[in-house]
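FORM 7B - TANDEM STRUCTURE REPORT

SECTION 1: FIRST PROTEIN
SEQUENCE AND TOKENS:
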Amino acid sequence: MEWTYLLDGVRNDRIGFVTTRPPGSPFAILDRRVIVTSPEQAVQLSHTEDVRVLDELVQLLHDPDRAWAAAVVLAALTRREEKLVESFASDPGEWWRALGQEAQARWSAWLSEKRDALAWDPDEQAFVET
């Protein structure tokens, strides 16, 4: 797992991201995609094609200092919960209070159910169900 050192960049106080509409989408507000912009380790992690990275990120969701950043990278990698990330972008602390403390259980259940059906889609730059 040559990407494991990239997990060091997944920290709430360092994570940067933008939301943008998917290429070709005519909608300015709907269907927003999360794109990780910093730090470089997290950017690289958000393009990791190894499904095992999802398990590692889910483990970080229990740590209040890293959970928000892990949620951002998970959203970028899976296109899941992107609207939640966008909604709490200005107040990640509120995300922690409202949804973050249950995030690990939520993501873990989803990953357990979908893991075997996930594959990296180079066009989507994300894991998709096959």
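SECTION 2: SECOND PROTEIN
SEQUENCE AND TOKENS:
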Amino acid sequence: MTNILVMGQPYWGQRIARALDTPAGDMRAAFIPHGSYPRLLARPRSDRVLVIRVGYRIGATTTRGRLFDAYWSLLRGSLRNAVPCHYWLGSDVLETIEEARAGTLRWAALRGTRDDLHLADAPWLVSELESVGIHAVNAHVPVPHRAPSSPPALPAEFSVLTYLATNRFEFYGGDAILEAARRLPDVRFDVVGTTGAPYRQSPPNVRWHGWVTDMPRYYADTTVVVRIPRHDGLGETVVEGLLNARHVLYTHEVPFVRTVWPATPEALVAALAALRDDHAAGRLEPNLTGRAYALEAFDEARLVGHLAALVRERA
């Protein structure tokens, strides 16, 4: 039996714990909430356990980062046979790279983990971590997707679907998306994730839907999914867009997805205008090759099996 403790970023940490609590019964995984950290230290144990740190980067100069690094050291001392693992998600990698460039990264803390198991949610994160001396293995976080049994036809009206967060509007390319909407007044832009309250001067062809739960309806009613953050792990709207046979514009390279980088308004408008013109001429079909790829590459059972194999090899 492999015992696994998962801590760190709650949303993804809980997903990882559920994925590794395998039906086969040879793994037992549990997510440890923040409030239970002191109790974990108070109960030393000597049996072998894999401890996964999710999204909380090593060597951060912030107060919270330093405190968690100190706790991590105490925990490793308490769990004498612990096997440490670091699961990198996206922003944690970006912030590590930025601190390394700025000369503020605590290199000693990072180098001290080079022999640990490092997992990364996307292949480009693996490359970025190599630049700071960390060898990681790509392992996309297993997520249960609701893929339609058959791909919906493209809607009659050419339209764009994107996700923006109010507190990270600029980071997710909000300015470029609104500018593209201004330059393409005949294209409808549907925005989920925020009500757009701070952006009331947005063009009339932008519709703000806030937080939604019925995403399949939005995918069925769109032609192109746009996701252009400054940096990302493997975005779930990209995966879901492909599973719904939609065309996808993204800032990172993914098979059967059109890369838009740098994500300037000009680049975004050019990519969207080309798709719009193909749609108007009747040449644009559902992205069936992208859907076939996503059905295999992001199958939850396949991702769980890959992640479990990496854990078993180290544990």
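SECTION 3: OBSERVATIONS ON SECOND PROTEIN
Residues 207 and 297 are 32 Å apart (CA to CA).
The chain has a mean pLDDT of 93.

SECTION 4: SIGNATURE
Preparer initials: ____
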